[in-house]
Amino acid sequence: MRKNSYISLTSILIQLIKTRLSLAVTLSSVSGYFISQKDPGINLVFLTSGVFFLAAAAAVLNQISEIKYDRLMSRTKERPLPLELISEKSATGITVFLCGVGILCLSFTGIIVVSLGFAAVILYNLIYTKLKRISVLAIIPGAIVGAIPPLMGYEAAGGGIPDPAIIMFSSFVFLWQLPHFWLILIKNRKDYEVAGFVTFSRTITKGQIRNLVFFWVLLSSVFLVEFTELFEVFSVKISWLLIPVNLIFIVLFLFSLFGRSEKEEYSRAFILINIFNLLIMILFIINSFL
Q1: pLDDT greater than 70 at residue 70
Q2: 251, 168: one domain
Q3: Which residues contact residue 212 at a Cβ distance below 8 angstroms, ignoring those fewer than 6 apart?
Q4: Ramachandran angles phi, psi of 69, nearest 5°
Q5: In terms of Cα–Cα distance, which of 192, 165, 5 is closest to 86?
């Protein structure tokens, strides 16, 4: 009985802190770290721990603030809070604990890193979360939140004035998140409309949405290649690898937008764009060791 309870509690926590999202945020900060510092040190441990705990805290806080809307949507109604598998009071306690541990870990890397982390949590939960019920432009502050962790990693590694590499990488993460958010919004638009969120699917046709997403992805890809070539961000080996990787991604993404069904189109495109972002992060980390 105790074993089952332990497994159940673990499962609830994994869902509550949005583990995959929190890990992705942490990885982006690690990429920023290695752009500044090739040798891993104790600050990398404090950075990864702090960013993960802070991202987890933001995820729980987001679910607490949106619990009544999550109950209305099929994609979120089986989360721990809507199902009352955990009380709001307990979830709040978890948020405070995670936030405290996260800030404590980040404090060892410097006040600027702590400030950036705190700003990301505030921007995500007090601005993005509130604004997305009012305007589709909420994706702008949402994308800014995603561009902050690489800067935190860069600063934690001892980076002073940002060099072109971290500017480019943070800008790429910002650009990448816009079609990422659009695809989520489009894929789950019926859910969002039922819950009262603002969507642009009623004013933009399916074809226009497809074109918007594709050309924005194309813009992000071209920006990545041109910026890295102009400022010689990558080593020669990685630079040569980057061009075919981008071309393959663009072709695959284009084909992904023409599936058997609309849901299939956006699901495949969403998966592909996340894989591409993960690959770019890995290339940055590999590049630091060459």
Answers
A1: yes
A2: yes
A3: 182, 204
A4: -80, -35
A5: 5
Q: Give yes or no: residues 112 and 28 share one domain.
A: yes
Residue 153 falls inside a structural domain: no
**What's the total number of domains in the chain?**
2
How far apart are the two ends of the chain, measured CA to CA in Å? 52
Predicted TM-score of the model (pTM):
0.89
Q: Which single residue is written with the structure tokens 């600063």?
A: 155
Whether 115 and 191 map to the same domain: the answer is: no
| Continuous H helices in the chain | 2-16, 19-36, 42-65, 67-70, 88-107, 111-122, 129-131, 139-156, 164-187, 189-194, 206-231, 236-256, 262-288
Asked if residue 281 is part of any domain, the answer here is yes
d(Cα 222, Cα 216) in Å, to the nearest integer? 10
Query: Which domain, by its residues, includes 217?
Result: 163-290
Distance CA 237, CA 242 (A): 9
Residues 186-217: pLDDT tens digits? 778 788 888 778 776 666 766 777 787 888 88
Q: CATH number of the domain that 253 lies in? A: 1.20.120
Determine the Cα–Cα distance for residues 260 and 212; give it in Å rounded to an integer.
20
